[in-house]
Design a protein that fits this description.
Elements: E1 2-6, H1 29-37, E2 47-49, E3 52-56, E4 59-64, E5 66-69, H2 80-88, E6 96-99, E7 112-113, H3 116-132, E8 137-141, H4 145-153, E9 157-167, H5 174-179, H6 183-198, E10 201-207, H7 213-229, H8 238-247, E11 252-259, E12 262-272, E13 275-283, H9 290-306, E14 310-312, E15 326-336, H10 339-365, H11 371-376
Parallel strand pairs: 6-8, 13-14
Antiparallel strand pairs: 1-3, 2-5, 3-4, 4-7, 5-6, 8-15, 9-14, 9-15, 10-11, 11-12, 12-13
Helix pairs in contact: 1-8
Length: 383
């Protein structure tokens, strides 16, 4: 007998989730509880934990990271126009539900279960919760291909997007990677790195027990400064980063730029499975090219040195193409309770998909790699 229930906290699931096979750091108890314990998610931030679990004889056999949302900030799949349309029609769009990694456009599984039947039961239970509580919609953000197709086959709308990812094609060193780029792109990267080197700026990489309290303090001052420069406020609290470093230190990679002993900027990355995720960056002063060095080139070199397969440098950014990143397709799935709005949104998504296909084809034409290299090493990024 499978029992499916919702919860009002991830913290309460500490012992129960241990029996599930969860490969991704971003789906782990440690990650979501760090967000909750630190106050980065909760009622005050408009991200209210609402995890759904499936149990059999007291053992958890299924899990979905669900949040109730009072807004659409920090999602990277934009539905503000949908909310406005609901409002103009006198309907409430919020609260809505989402399954996502808060503040992170990271593709991965959004429903963990022992088998496909349990996954389907959980989706049906989620739909019942939405309808019973008159919640406008639920949005599955950045699911992997397997999950997005499951939701699509169960009648959920599917939306497509594009992000950028660098692939380590078993490079022996950074020079070998550069040798595969076109002359102009290779020259530009070398020039950018040379300018940083000529300023005597050095990048130190810290991981695990090498990350000290003073490093977290410096990182957070840089992180906050980025938001201040954009007249905004940071989503994540300092306590979140302390908690993260305490609970999963080997998954954190901190890159710090220094000049003559003075710290200038930093980037915090997270390792999960075979991918390095560039998540947060900040600087205390502006230096041209330093962002590219810390957020792209240092990450690429780290992946080569540590034999990591992929490096995702954060949301959007066509400028990543010129630095050896490839476009890849992303997905989201949407359950819209109101049938009229579902039809309207379905029509919108159909037109958007056609536009996205043209956009993706254009991106492929702007690859930084040599044409001969692309022909010889053609890969399928799902674009």
């Amino acid at each position: 007998m499978i029992e499916i229930t919702s919860n009002n906290s991830f913290i309460n699931l500490k012992d129960k989730l241990s029996g599930l096979k969860i490969n991704s750091i971003f789906l782990s108890y440690a990650f979501h509880s760090a967000l909750e314990i630190s106050g980065s998610v909760g009622k005050s931030s408009g991200w209210i934990p609402f995890p759904i679990i499936a149990q059999s004889e007291g053992k958890i056999v299924g899990f979905m990271p669900i949040y109730l949302k009072e807004h659409s900030y920090g999602e990277y799949v934009f539905d503000w126009s949908w909310a406005e349309a609901f409002h103009k029609s006198g309907l409430n769009y919020y609260p809505k539900m989402i399954s996502a990694i808060p503040f992170s456009p990271i593709t991965g599984s959004r429903i963990i279960a022992d088998n496909l039947d349990i996954k389907k039961m959980m989706i049906k239970a989620l739909e019942k919760i939405l309808l019973d509580h008159k919640i406008s919609s639920c949005h599955i953000l950045f699911p992997n291909e397997q999950d997005t197709n499951l939701f699509k086959n169960m009648g959920w709308l599917q939306r497509e997007g594009v992000q950028f990812r660098w692939e380590n094609k078993n490079y022996d060193n950074y020079a070998q990677f550069l040798s595969n780029l076109s002359h102009n792109k290779r020259k530009k990267i070398k020039q950018e790195r040379k300018k940083i080197n000529n300023l005597n700026i050095e990048v130190t990489v810290k991981q695990g027990n090498l990350i000290l309290s003073e490093d977290i303090e410096f990182f957070y001052s840089c992180y906050c400064n980025t938001y201040i420069l954009h007249n905004s406020s940071p989503y994540l609290t300092k306590e979140f980063f302390y908690q993260l470093n305490n609970d999963m230190p080997n998954s954190i990679v901190l890159m710090i730029a220094e000049q003559g002993g003075k710290r200038l900027a930093t980037a915090l990355n997270i390792i999960s499975e075979q991918t390095l995720y560039g998540r947060y960056w900040g600087a205390l002063e502006y230096i041209p090219g330093l962002h590219f060095e810390l957020c792209y080139y240092a990450g690429q070199e780290f992946c080569i040195q540590n034999q990591l397969k992929y490096f995702e440098g954060g949301a959007q950014g066509e400028h990543k193409l010129a630095r050896g990143f490839d476009p890849f397709k992303t997905y989201s799935n949407h359950f819209i309770a109101n049938s009229e709005f579902k039809s309207a949104i379905e029509s919108f998504l159909s037109k958007e998909k056609a536009h996205m296909t043209m956009y993706a084809n254009d991106l492929d034409e702007r690859s930084a790699f040599k044409k001969t290299y692309l022909t010889e090493n053609k890969t399928n990024n799902g674009i």
